[in-house]
Structures are given as C-alpha cells and as structure tokens.
Write a structure and sequence with these properties.
There is one protein chain. Helix 1 crosses helix 8, helix 3 (about 130-145) crosses helix 6 (about 255-265) and helix 3 (about 130-145) crosses helix 8. By secondary structure, the chain is of the alpha/beta class. The chain contains 8 helices and 14 strands. The radius of gyration is 20 Å and the shape is globular. Strand 3 and strand 4 (about 50-55) form a beta hairpin.
C-alpha cells in the first residue's frame, strides 16, 4: 500500500538526496509534498516523472493533507518548531536534525543496528548524526560477537557535511590557492583547501567538540550500552563527499582479524574491501554516491590484548542521512 509522503527541507542537499533515494528504492509514494523556506516557494522538483511545486513550511502546511510519513531535513530549530505540527496532523516524522536525538522518549534508529526501537515511537523518530551512523553499522557485528567495551575513533569528515556552500568554498579556495590568489574563508574557522581542521561544531567545557560528544552519547543510546566508553576526535578534511573513520575497539572476547573480517562481511549494509596486497581498501572518492558502509584495513591492535582496528568509509549524505531516513520509513511499509 502506497504512502502519502512529505519531504521537509526538500531543496537542501539532504532533501534532494531523500527524493532521489525514495525514487531509487521504489518507495511506494502515492502522493508527494515538498516543503522548504519561503525563498524556495514555487520552485519545481522532479520526482518519478512529475514536477512538484515547493510549498512553504508553516505550522499549518500539514493540515488536511493526510500525510503518512514526513522526512525532515530542515535543521534543528525548524524541526522543533514544525515537527510537532506534522505529528498532530497524523504524520510519522523521521527527523534528520539533532533536535530530538537525545530525547529519552524518541527512538534514535539505524535499521541495521536497532530497528526494533522504531516501533516504540510516539510520532517522531530521530536520524542519528552522520558520523555516528556509519560507525555503529560497523560496530554492531563486532559487538554481537565479542562485546565491545571501548571505542576509539578519529574521523576525517568531508566538507559536504557542512552543506553545499562549504563544498563550493573548498573548491573555490583550491582554485584560488593554485592561482596564488587570496582565499575567502567563511564556512570554517580556517582555510580548508590543502588543510585539515580538528574542529567540527563548537567546543564544550570538557575540551571535546559537540560533534565528538554526539558520537559518544548517540552510540550509547543506539547500541543500548550506557556504559560503553567512546573517545572521539572529529576532523574536517578537504574531501568533497563521504566521511572516513579510523576505529579501534576493545572487546571482552578476543577476535582475530580473520574473525572480525568474517563477521563484518556477513553483516547487513557493509562491504568489506580489505586486500592491502592489491592496494584495496575504502576511499571516499570511490565510495561517494553509494549506499553501503565500506570497511577495510582490518587488523588486530598490537597495543592491546583484545583489540581490532579498521578503516570505515560511507557517503554521509546517503547512509549518513537520506538513505538511513528512508530505511527507517521502510520499516513501516
């Protein structure tokens, strides 16, 4: 049975990917509604051979439309303001922002990890942070096999995580740097072209950034592991699309690299790309535009008794955002 679906923030980078993902995965859309801010009203968006005019996002825009599922990607403040209105109008809201992720009464869901949590919703389901999503997909099979006690992660996050304007700035800075022209710096604290910036989101009192603490708190919630020790360092890199992560886990039961590789290879949503002798390992340039989480460089951590280290790459606009949201919606078909 088809669904009446709304995409909120439809003209943004993630909103566009949500529409494309609904189409590619043949999600049964009976009727589509696309909402965005006033400046996008009237803009036409194509979907399954038809054009849909963008409507303004307001508290009343959901009334009378009998929307079944509303995919939100319009930022936390707008989600807080308008998601309750969508719920009151009868929609299930799947929200891509940080607005509701740590609300104890709202499920935080990655379908490969905790799909059962989605059923406990009271109108809103939260989509986790992009860097958290790809990590927990890779952690899940290892946790099931050997119980993870601690996670150490360093991220290498693409500029598209900060939006299209950040991608444009990275490209323009690269051109200007090569032409020996002055660089315009706006989206990040420093030049991103030919540089790394160990600073994503705002710094907290404990010395970690908000992005790093999201990975800590969200991972514990998704995996139902409140005592899981997670230490994260998040870094912005001059890559256009797809986040990379170096992850080291400490486990209660010892796993060999071969065992870890086998568990990962059998897990849903993961492609193991791990043949260093042939220079085969995940890289963001080649992962961009694809759905799975790619894992490689799987090896035993030589600094501890029960440890596995690996490299993990995923398209953060897809599995890290739009795809995960659509997969949550598919749980209700």
């Amino acid at each position: 049975m088809g669904k009446r679906v709304a995409v909120v923030g439809a003209t943004g980078a993630v909103g566009v990917e949500m529409l494309a993902t609904l189409d590619k995965r043949n999600f049964p859309v009976d009727e589509l509604f696309v909402f965005a801010s006033a400046r996008s009203v009237g803009k036409k968006l194509g979907f399954q051979g038809r054009e849909y005019a963008v409507e303004e996002l307001t508290a009343a825009c959901f009334d009378g439309k009998k929307i079944d599922i509303a995919l939100f990607s319009a930022g936390a403040s707008r989600s807080k303001e308008f998601a309750p209105a969508a719920v009151r109008a009868g929609a299930l809201v799947i929200d891509n922002s940080s607005a509701f992720r740590m609300d104890a009464d709202i499920p935080l869901v990655v379908p490969e990890v905790n799909p059962e949590d989605a059923k406990a919703h009271t109108g809103i389901i939260a989509n986790p942070n992009c860097s958290t999503i790809q990590m927990v997909v890779a952690l899940k099979p290892l946790h099931d096999a050997a119980q993870i006690l601690r996670v150490e992660v360093a991220t290498y996050q693409a500029v598209s995580g900060a939006g299209q304007s950040a991608m444009d700035e990275c490209i323009q800075q690269t051109r200007d740097f090569l032409a020996s022209k002055p660089l315009h710096i706006e989206k990040f604290a420093h030049q991103i072209a030919f540089n790394l910036i160990p600073h994503i989101d705002v710094f907290q009192d404990n010395g970690y950034t908000k992005e790093e603490m999201k990975m800590v708190y969200e991972t514990r919630k998704i995996m139902h592991a409140p005592d899981l020790r997670v230490n994260a360092t998040t870094v912005r890199v001059p890559v256009l699309r797809a986040h990379s992560e170096v992850i080291t886990v400490s486990t209660e039961k010892k796993l060999s690299a071969a065992e870890a590789r086998a568990y990962l290879a059998k897990a849903p949503g993961i492609i193991v790309q791990d043949d260093p002798a042939k220079n085969q390992y995940p890289m963001p340039f080649f992962v961009s535009g694809s759905y799975p989480v790619y894992v490689g460089r799987i090896r035993e951590d030589i600094s501890q008794e029960n440890g596995i280290t690996f490299f993990c790459v995923a398209d953060q606009l897809l599995k890290g955002a739009a795809l995960n949201a659509v997969q949550i919606a598919e749980l209700f078909l």
